[in-house]
Design brief:
By secondary structure, the chain is of the alpha/beta class. It is built from 11 helices and 4 strands. Strands 3-2-1-4 form a 4-stranded parallel sheet, sandwiched between helices. Helix 2 links the parallel strand 1 and strand 2. Helix 2 packs parallel to helix 3 and helix 2 packs across helix 7. The longest helix is centred in the middle third of the chain and has 26 residues. It is globular. The protein starts with a helix and ends in a 16-residue tail after the last helix.
Length: about 250
């Protein structure tokens, strides 16, 4: 992807692919989460090209950093994308209270609470998809998928994954080609699950290390990546169906 012509070809291919897959399934447009991060910005840019008038970015703060919402609006304005805003804070608080979660007493409790947020966002995306006969576009990339850095039935719940074969490094290259605003490209990647949370800090790997392994450029990260890949295999598969007993 180093050569501009290659990146241009990739962008055109993904725009066509989105349009064809949505149309083939009877959809009339696309909806996606607009988080203020580079992955969602790239999906937004591709979506706007594929469906200029049937493209919706959903901004879904849930006790989120204000800067993330500002960045999401920056992307929407930059590409001329329609948005809707759904504040999930009260819904999240109510559900956490009903579940009796404290969210801070143990790592398991903290993780349970954190995963509620992307699952609420998935529910919201599909509500809008149902209303408009749109398809939900996920924003996950190859790097995240490889190590299971996504929430099962949360941000992993979608109809199409345009970036699923691109590493984070390649997503950034594509972002530059698509003219994603530079502050979005340069900001530290974060799922925004809690204050100060970062992708690399939670994974224990930098994207350079992870992508280097996936691209075959380095092997130092192999043990960590392969362990995370094995542990998260269930996230990338449909639920197993029990076979009937043999006669």
């Amino acid at each position: 992807m180093e050569k501009p012509a290659t990146v241009e070809k990739l962008a055109a291919h993904l725009v066509t692919w989105i349009g064809e897959r949505v149309a083939a399934g009877g959809g009339e447009g696309v909806v996606f989460g607009l988080s203020g991060g580079v992955d969602s910005a790239v999906v937004a840019a591709l979506s706007q090209r594929a469906f200029p008038h049937q493209c919706l970015g959903l901004i879904m703060p849930c006790h989120s950093e204000p800067q993330d919402e500002e960045d999401a609006h920056l992307v929407a304005h930059h590409f001329g994308i329609a948005t809707a805003r759904v504040d999930l804070g009260d819904v999240y608080d109510g559900l956490v209270n009903e579940l009796g979660l404290t969210c801070t007493d143990t790592p398991a409790s903290r993780l349970a609470c954190a995963n509620i947020k992307p699952r609420l966002r998935m529910t919201s995306l599909y509500a809008f998809a149902n209303l408009h006969n749109y398809r939900v576009l996920g924003t996950g990339n190859r790097s995240e998928l490889a190590v299971g850095y996504f929430t099962k039935y949360g941000d992993g719940g979608c109809d199409l994954l345009p970036l699923g074969n691109l590493t984070k490094t390649q997503v950034r290259q594509l972002a530059r080609h698509l003219d994603v605003p530079r502050p979005i490209i340069d900001k530290p990647p974060s799922a925004g699950l809690w204050a100060g949370q970062s992708d690399e800090g939670e994974m224990g790997l930098t994207y350079d290390e992870l992508d280097g392994y996936l691209d075959g450029r380095q092997t130092a990260a192999a043990p960590a990546v392969e362990a995370m890949n094995a542990a998260s295999a269930h996230k990338r598969e449909l639920p197993p169906i029990a076979p009937l007993p043999e006669d």
